[in-house]
Amino acid sequence: QAANLQMKEKLMGLNLNFSSLEENHEEVLEGLQPHANLRWLRIWSYNGKHLPSWMMKNRLHCFLPNLLRIEIEGADCQLTHLCSFGRLPLLQHLLLRELNSVEYIEEDEGDALVTGE
């Protein structure tokens, strides 16, 4: 049954521990998009290669504008790309630990160099 976290407007924090889940980490996380009122998010032992669409492509600040704290940890994490955290207006704490496969962090759209006349 679906968790339907988008409808849980009083949920302030979400601790997602993937250590006991064997596979489908990406699919599970994609379906766990929380309500925009969420204040803290912790993703632990995630071994997916990609973060969910609601976190990527400069969407995180749109879907979760009230985040104060984000923690992403994973000893066996396979993430190669991380989302941008720079556009979260209220972010006070960011912890990225044991993400040894990360090769790229998205640029904020507003930070891109503009060239031309």
In total, the number of domains comes to: 1
* Relative strand content: 15-25%
Write down the Rg.
15 Å
Runs with pLDDT <50, length 5+? 112-117
Please give the count of helices: 2
Strand and helix order: EHEHEEEE
Structural class: mainly beta
Mean pLDDT across residues: 86
Give me the count of strands. Answer: 6
Helix content: under 10%
Main β-sheet, spatial strand arrangement: 1-2-3-5
Main β-sheet: number of strands, strand sense, barrel status? 4 strands, parallel
What is the CA-CA span between the terminal residues?
54 Å
Shape: globular
Protein name: R13L1/DRL21-like LRR repeat region domain-containing protein
Domain R13L1/DRL21-like LRR repeat region: 2-98
Pfam families: LRR_R13L1-DRL21 (PF25019)
Write a structural description.
With 117 residues, the chain is mainly β. It has helices at residues 25-30, 60-63; strands at residues 13-17, 40-44, 69-73, 81-82, 93-97, 104-105. It has one domain. The chain is built from 2 helices and 6 strands; from the N terminus they run βαβαββββ.
